[in-house]
Amino acid sequence: PPSSSVSSDSSHPYYDVARHGIIQVSGDDNYGRKLIIFSSCCLPPSHQLNHQRLLQYLKFTLDQYVEMDYILVYFHHGLKSSNKPSLKWLREAYSEFDRKYKKNLKTLFVVHPTNFIRIVWNIFKPLISHKFGKKLTYVNYLDELRDHLNYEQLIIPPDVLRHDEKLRAAQKGGPPPSVKTPPPRPPLPTQQFGVSLQYIREKNRGAIIPPVIHQTVTYLKEKGLRTEGLFRRSARVQLIKDVQKLYNLGKPVNFDEVGDVHVPAVILKTFLRELPEPLLTFRVYNQVQEILSVESSLRATRCKQIMESLPEHHFIVVKYLLCFLHMVSTESIVNKMSPSNLACVFGVNLVWPRHGSISLSALTPINIFTELLIEHFHAVFGSRCPPGQVTP
């Protein structure tokens, strides 16, 4: 029988959390694995629940079963802005989990996933190990669980059952729900696109300049400085995808063989755009937006202050990239890429807001800011010279 006695025993050390029934454990399934169930719909509003206690209780529960194989079933339905834990909490929960509990976890079933899950998954992607990602299974309807575990043993909250009925009814009548596609797998160790600078550095023997930036810049510096409209042209989509794939698999890329100088140029822009956090960091976005309110003659100095406030790793990569863009602009008589033309291309790939997209009115300050960085490169970046600094 389901061992949910905890919820009713007021002498239990975690009675305050346990009584909500958020976490339930039910006996061994057909394959001898414990089932641990986490139901979002049982989470009370955040102000009524101490999330630190919830984490301790989760650990307290897992500690009893961590030595045996177990399955985690997560019912996502019922998670609302009023009761959902913060991302900081999730990160803390995951790092605890990763350290101690993931070894014997056989599968994590995420039941009734939504876009919110995808978004969280993308935020956490750089942290999540490839192994753990393989244990994640999306379940759109409760029925699908029958193939994987002893369904009768599951303690399913009534809310979840009702939600499942609604979804099934909707599917009979309307188009199937769009949640079918599972999320992208966690990155491979060789992944270069869409992962953080930190991740790339750790997986590439401490390289401060990400290999994609280093290789495209080195190639373009040698072969592209005099190409008219550099960074303005696009390249064949399939070609770009192929090159990205080579990079992500850790295979060597030879731009001479590709035979089109615009390919490395597009790859560099794509790399910047796919970073989980912009190269200039989220924190800088509002400061960039205010550049127009700074008197013209003081703007370069303001840029310098903002740049010098960047974390060291970001600063070194930004300085490397902008030194190169400055070089491109010095050849603008031939390549037609003035600081302002380069800024139009690169601005949106260097900084963007944490939420939402860039409105047209927000573009102007971004482009002006980027133009200042390129045109006044020496003034803006000259004073701060970290020991690990690299020049193109």
Describe this structure as you would to a colleague:
The structure is a single chain. With 392 residues, this protein is an alpha/beta fold. The protein folds into two domains: 14-173, CRAL-TRIO lipid binding domain (Phosphatidylinositol Transfer Protein Sec14p, 3-Layer(aba) Sandwich); 197-382, Rho GTPase activation protein (Phosphatidylinositol 3-kinase, Chain A), CATH 1.10.555. The chain has 18 helices and five strands. It has helices at 15-18, 51-65, 87-100, 115-124, 130-134, 158-173, 197-203, 211-223, 237-248, 255-258, 262-273, 285-289, 299-308, 312-330, 332-335, 339-350, 360-375, 377-381; strands at residues 23-28, 34-39, 70-75, 105-111, 136-139. The chain has a five-stranded mixed sheet. Helix 8 (211-223) packs antiparallel against helix 11 (262-273), helix 11 (262-273) crosses helix 16 and helix 16 crosses helix 17. The longest helix is centred in the last third of the chain and has 19 residues, at 312-330. The radius of gyration is 26 Å and the shape is elongated. The protein starts with 14 loop residues before the first helix and ends in an 11-residue tail after the last helix.
